[in-house]
Specification:
Layout (H helix, E strand, L loop, with lengths): L1 H8 L3 E3 L11 E9 L2 E9 L11 E5 L15 H10 L4 E3 L6 E3 L2 E8 L5 E7 L6 E4 L4 E4 L12 H12 L17 H5 L12 E5 L2 E6 L6 H4 L10 H7 L10 E2 L3 E7 L3 E6 L13 E5 L4 H9 L5 E3 L5 H6 L3 H4 E14 L9 H9 L3 H9 L4 E2 L23 H15 L3 H5 L3 E6 L2 H18 L3 E6 L1 H7 L12 E7 L9 H5 L14 H11 L3 H18 L3 E13 L3 E2 L14 E2 L1 H7 L1
Parallel strand pairs: 4-16, 20-21, 20-22
Antiparallel strand pairs: 1-2, 2-3, 5-6, 7-8, 8-12, 9-10, 9-13, 11-12, 14-15, 15-16, 17-23, 18-22, 18-23, 19-23, 24-25
Helix pairs in contact: 10-12, 17-18
């Protein structure tokens, strides 16, 4: 079978054909070839005429960057999650309007507690969701079959496999810590040699029933059940193709769309899955993504009717608000995300809290919002934004702009070290961000604030998104880490456990800050298992205070708003949590073609 597949893929063309109502076009395609016994994916120029025909209902969007991965176990970023949301079904899903958890693959679930203090969640699944593969040669989507020719449907064993694959340390999932509420997940993922992956608290009881045993009662587990890291995954495809399994022509999916093509660094296309359980309700037939980093270029394409929706570049905000057409297409609304600057707490001179405090208090967040961002962003002095359970009211916790205090804090450090400001600047403090015009403008503004208030010189660097994410891993050698770096965090589920605990806890979270465990870490761990909601909220408020006021381990900057323009022929929503659900959007194709 493998030889036959390799023979097939030696001639397979994975193409993004652009259909035209009046004729064909030359296209750039990706080919899968066999070289020296290994399957290799290459991008080539192919002279080929696409067949003339009716133009499908098409959505054109800009991803802004290359998705680092389409593998649910490996994704950590919103770009990847946006694509995965449309390719794979999850156990549950967030309602895009109410943010309530709703059935998806699971039709219902039961919760029980046992005498050991553990909690069991039992999910009952539908049995009619097919695993499918798209054939780039024929353009057909077909249902997968097993070795006996039986059709494959998504089942509880696929869920069990997916969760175990995420937790298995051999997979290398950077987001596995979110599963640590599941019994033995933390120990297994941490390499405990006394446990095996079969000791994980997830088990398929039959094809339509999967049971999770938690370490402790966690009312927010329904939110975790919506996430990509616990989605069902196709074991046979992953076993067959390994790291290549997410490439076009190889990937097996279960959602409303299938992957037609993925030209790395250039474009990615999805087409509607005709075998989807609700295919009749999916109006958009194909989605063509480009990967343009420059917000100004993306916006120019939008104004030329080549993109249907995009963000607004910071320099264009005033013009868009004043323009009679663009202002009608503009939407600004809060989203549960926070923009922050992380401090590498173990890297001098940011290993001293006085330096971190000085850098945080020298940021005039309100000025940044008013003069640079101009999109209604809320200045942030703590991490979790409004709408997240346990989040303090904005401005009630943390350190705001205080130039005098910032100067005094840095001067105290300099005096103790016997340093001048010139000697401090010789340390070459680096601020890093991922490549983006918007991030660059924000960095330049804050860089100037630090110069004006503190007299410090900070060097700004940037990296491409996937490379940047690798740089910020807590396993990166300290000498390769920037002193300060930007990230945003958006809610995976609306609970502080997903914020202060899973992001910053030194024992159980991502801990990109390189913090040492202490009072904060014990507090967020205890808050996660506290049954009294009021007490939990108090504990999280104290944790936010410890992190920002006492440790000043990072600098929260602002809570996001969605600043977006969309064409009048596009009807879309803006889910606050989870990836974008294109399967719920519609395009008036006649109006779009008329405008073009």
């Amino acid at each position: 079978m493998r030889k036959r597949l390799l023979a097939l893929f030696s001639v397979l063309i994975v193409g993004a054909l652009v259909l035209s109502a009046c004729g064909g076009e030359t296209v750039v395609e990706t080919v899968i070839v066999e070289k020296e016994g290994e399957t290799i994916i290459e991008t080539v120029v192919v002279e080929k005429e696409a067949e003339a025909g009716e133009i499908p209902v098409t959505l054109n969007l800009n991803l802004g960057t290359e998705p680092p991965t389409l593998d649910p176990s490996l994704a950590t970023d919103t770009t990847s999650v946006d694509i995965q949301e449309n390719l794979f079904i999850g156990l549950t899903n967030f309602n895009p309007v109410t943010n309530e958890v709703e059935p998806y693959l699971a039709t219902s679930w039961d919760i029980a507690e046992n005498a050991d203090g553990e909690q069991t969640w039992t999910f009952h699944l539908r049995d009619d969701v097919p695993w499918v593969k798209y054939d780039p040669i024929s353009g057909e989507t077909t249902q997968e079959v097993d070795a006996d020719g039986n059709p494959r449907f998504v089942n509880a064993y696929d869920v069990e496999y997916g969760v175990k694959r995420t937790v298995d340390p051999a997979t290398g999932s950077d987001y596995a810590y979110v599963t640590y509420v599941i019994k033995n997940a933390a120990a297994i993922n941490g390499g405990d040699e006394e446990l095996t992956i079969d000791d994980l608290g997830v088990k398929a009881l039959d094809e339509t029933t999967v049971e999770f045993t938690l370490e402790y009662p966690a009312g927010y587990f329904d939110g975790i059940s919506t996430m990509w890291i616990v989605k069902p995954m196709p074991a046979w495809a992953i076993d067959e193709w390994g790291d290549k399994w997410t490439e076009a022509g190889l990937i097996v999916t279960s959602g409303p769309y299938v992957l037609e093509s993925w030209i790395h660094g250039g474009e990615l296309s999805l087409v509607k899955n005709p075998l989807w359980i609700a295919a009749d309700s999916v109006q958009i037939e194909r989605v063509d993504f480009v990967m343009i980093t420059e917000a100004s270029t993306s916006f120019a394409l939008y104004e030329n009717n080549e993109l249907d929706s995009t963000g607004v570049p910071l320099p264009e905000m005033d013009r868009v608000k004043a323009d009679p057409v663009l202002s009608e297409e503009l939407r600004i609304a809060p989203v549960p995300c926070t923009y922050y600057y992380g401090f590498t707490n173990s890297k001098p001179p940011l290993d001293d809290v006085r330096v971190r405090r000085a850098f945080s208090q020298a940021i005039d967040r309100q000025s940044l919002a008013d003069n640079v961002l101009k999109g209604g962003q809320i200045p942030a002095t703590s991490f979790a934004p409004p709408g997240i359970f346990g989040a303090p009211e904005p401005g009630t916790v943390g350190l705001g702009y205080d130039a005098a205090a910032a100067k005094a804090s840095l001067q105290e450090y300099l005096d103790e070290k016997g340093m001048t400001i010139d000697e401090f600047n010789a340390l070459d403090v680096v601020l890093m961000h991922n490549t983006s015009e918007g991030h660059a403008r924000i960095a330049a503004a804050i860089q100037q604030m630090w110069a004006d208030v503190l007299g410090v010189t900070v060097r700004v660097e940037n990296q491409e998104w996937a490379v940047y994410l690798d740089t910020l891993k807590n396993t990166t050698p300290l000498e390769d880490m920037p002193h300060i770096w930007r990230l945003g965090w958006c809610a995976d589920y609306p609970d502080e456990n997903n914020w202060v605990h899973e992001v910053f806890n030194a024992d159980a979270g991502a801990n990109r800050l390189r913090r040492e465990a202490g009072e904060f870490d014990a507090l967020t761990a205890a808050a996660g298992i506290e049954p009294d909601p009021a007490k939990r909220a108090e504990m999280y408020a104290e944790a936010e205070r410890l992190l920002t006021e006492v440790e000043t381990a990072y600098a929260p900057i602002y809570h996001y708003t969605s600043v977006n323009v969309s064409k009048p022929w596009l009807t879309r929503n803006f889910p606050a949590i989870g990836g974008i659900d294109i399967y719920n959007w519609t395009v008036d194709m006649d109006a779009k073609l008329a405008a073009q």
